[in-house]
Write a structure and sequence with these properties.
This protein has about 210 residues and is α+β, with helices and mostly antiparallel strands. The chain is built from five helices and 13 strands. It has two domains: about 80 residues, PH-domain like (Roll), CATH 2.30.29; about 120 residues, 3-Layer(aba) Sandwich (Rossmann fold), CATH 3.40.50.150.
Length: about 210
């Protein structure tokens, strides 16, 4: 979901300032104490006066999110589908590279008929490419040339690897002339980072 905010959380008589992050299936807080609350464990979700209240089996946690409280509540109660979070539209031309996930391809084809698997293509709206180590990052330049001016490259990578992190992808994207704009939890095992052409480099041909 990508929502993240520095806030105060109160839980079981304790209060801590830290960073709250709304993931695809859980609410995570990291301060002087840690909370990980899966959506499925939430018994009630409410918001009022800038406070998001989550009741679950261990008690009630209050997230002081100010103006964002209602938005977070709605995201929890009405989460967007993966395809919506990835920004796939019916008119889009999409390529999937290195990802052996028939169910995801089926989801894509349920949204757009213009999906290719295993080949890059040209004038693409979106590219989904799985990268497993730093050596794969050299492909980013070619990915950038394959998208149109309003297109994006979703780099997917395994979670939890110290030798291959989000920062490595950001740096390689920058070297390839791309900027990162969004992070998602793609699945239980994969994260996703979207990269696009900078505004200053658009309109030079091959895009729209």
């Amino acid at each position: 979901m990508g929502l993240e905010k520095e806030c105060v959380v109160k839980f079981r008589g304790r209060s801590s300032t830290g960073r709250a992050r709304l993931e695809e299936k859980l609410l995570d807080f990291n301060g002087t104490f840690r909370l990980k609350i899966p959506f499925v464990a939430m018994m009630s979700v409410s918001a009022g006066q800038g406070i998001l209240r989550i009741e679950f089996s261990e008690g009630t946690a209050e997230f002081h999110l100010e103006a964002q409280a209602e938005k977070w509540k709605q995201q929890i109660l009405h989460p967007r589908s993966l395809i919506d979070k990835l920004g796939v539209k019916p008119s889009h031309k999409v390529s999937v590279l290195g990802l052996n996930d028939p169910s995801f391809v089926e989801l894509l084809r349920g949204r757009t008929s213009r999906v290719s698997v295993g080949r890059v293509g040209r004038d693409l709206d979106l590219v989904f490419v799985l990268m497993k180590d730093r050596g794969d990052l050299v492909r980013l330049a070619a990915m950038g040339r394959s998208i149109n001016d309003s297109g994006g490259v979703w780099v997917l990578w395994p979670k939890g690897r110290k030798a291959f992190r989000e920062g490595n992808i950001r740096a390689a994207g920058s070297a390839a002339g791309l900027v990162d704009v969004k992070v998602v939890s793609f699945s239980e095992t994969l994260s996703g980072l979207k990269m696009v052409k900078p505004l200053a480099k658009r309109g030079s041909g091959g895009g729209r």
